[in-house]
Amino acid sequence: MLTIDSGGQYLDGTIDTTRVLHFGTPTKEQQDIYTSLLQGCIDLVTTKFKPGTTLQELDPIIRKPLRDLGLSYGHGSTHGTGMYLTVHESFDYTYENNFIGSQEPGYYKENEFGMRLENLVQVTEVPVSNITQSQKLLTFESVTLVPYENKLINNCKLNKSTKKWLFSYYVIIRSLVGAEMIKQGRYDLYKWLIDKTDPTFKCFEISKT
């Protein structure tokens, strides 16, 4: 298992992404933990909240699935993202429209394995008609478009709304990233992308041995 935290500086912004790759057969423990991290990411990215909401108010959402396993992690769940400055900017203010930062739960078992999932997200307004400024709600939109490690996902434990979000996320990845791969003639990478974004969601739960 390999956890990669990678990013870069570009003319239109800075990226910071973490994914886990598994090259063998995961254990049930690894699958349960990874699934809880993914569930936390999706729970947070789909939540709706009022302008001015603080990190401290939303942080329990992304941590809850892992805490339900009796586990936790000792680092922050979010940081701001600089533009040609530091990738990690302190985040001690409130969420407002167009803010871009990370969502990154993780778990690290000493001397055995570590895993973290990190997406950059943008705060956007919830499209609701006929509302006043005081009624406006915000949500998140994922800026990062990188597949997850499907063999580590226990689809049996994902609820219907979570599967719907993941399906839509994979459709967007295929549409945008896949189109760019075809444009560049990278058909080998395109095949990899199609395999990694398989949206069939068959129930695959590793037995405890």
UniProtKB/TrEMBL annotation:
Signal peptide: none annotated. Residues 1-125 form the Peptidase M24 domain. Pfam families: Peptidase_M24 (PF00557), Peptidase_M24_C (PF16188). It comes from the Eukaryota. Residues 137-199 form the Peptidase M24 C-terminal domain. PANTHER family: XAA-PRO AMINOPEPTIDASE 1 (PTHR43763). This is Peptidase M24 domain-containing protein. It comes from Clastoptera arizonana (Arizona spittle bug).
